[in-house]
Give the backbone structure.
Amino acid sequence: MQIFEMSSQDKLNAQIRANEVNKKSGVGEPAEKNGLGKDSFLKLLVTQLRHQDPTKPMEDREFVAQMAQFSTLEQMTNLNNEVRNLLYSARSTEAYGVLGKYIDSFDSVTSTRVSGRVNSIFYKGDELMLKVGNEEVSMRNVHSVKLAEEGAK
């Protein structure tokens, strides 16, 4: 596989296009909360403290342990979201590098070979896809990239 240097203008254009795709796909925006969040945890904790047995109050160690567990979980969730956003951005930038170039790809599952000029890129679910002629090609199946002049030969 050949590696090509991009000019600073090409890099800027690729980043602009990546940002546009990321905005359309919702990457970088907070996901809709569908589980217990920080507010739910705090309400639960306050309720627990309100209704605890006065003869056996919650020990400081238990309280601190619960807070530490919640804090760790929240940090792991935030880290996971940031890594996911970084991955989407990296994939988009990589795909913009092949836009307009000629690619060769092979899908080992369907034994389909596709070669041609990349006309557009898009996401199908979490999968980054390339449009080559009338074919849709997964970015992961691309095994070579050529400049437009070389691919046309």
Q: What stands out?
A: DSSP finds four helices and five strands in the chain. Residues 60-98 form the longest helix (39 residues). Confidence is low (pLDDT under 50) at residues 28-33. The beta strands are 102-107, 112-124, 127-132, 135-138, 142-146.
